[in-house]
Amino acid sequence: RDFNLPANWEGKEIFLSADGTKGAAFYYLNGTFIGMNKDAKTPARFNITKIAKPGMNVIAVQIHRFSDANYLECQDMWRLSGFERDIYIYAQPKVRIADFTVRTPLDKTYKDGEFSMDVLINNASGANKAVSVSYNLMDADGKTVLQSKEEKAVNESAKITFGQNVIKNVKAWTAETPNLYTLVISLKDASGKLLE
Q: Does this model's pTM top 0.85?
């Protein structure tokens, strides 16, 4: 498939995400092999920044129905092949949120919530960058329940940890009362400019 790379992606990190391919999948961009994946039910992600070019690009995927991974995945599954989920590209800034982990157990009395989070920042700029990471946790009415901010210098990667905070009288999620909270994570550079 041909696709046109947006002009405003210049200077960003570009990724290919294949959210589900059944069989051994081999990925090529502009005739260059970029990687392979055998796990049908988890996304395969590849950094294609150095291979993608401005303007028209060509992606090709070769899928083999059977591989040694079939023996691990053959229980309780139909043996179908091909694309099960979307394949797409996306761009992020050179300094970006690479991953985050949020933990939200209830306390021993099941009354209050406990919130902690780790945020992994990657820096592909080649220079040490000072950043700030903040979060805002809001209830269903949009009212802020928790918020915090941390600053850190990032060379190639850094993990920022937000320690445990307590949410008093948390509205826990159950099948009968599917209460949800909204979490917004923000990454800013040293001047306060929002990156993500």
A: no
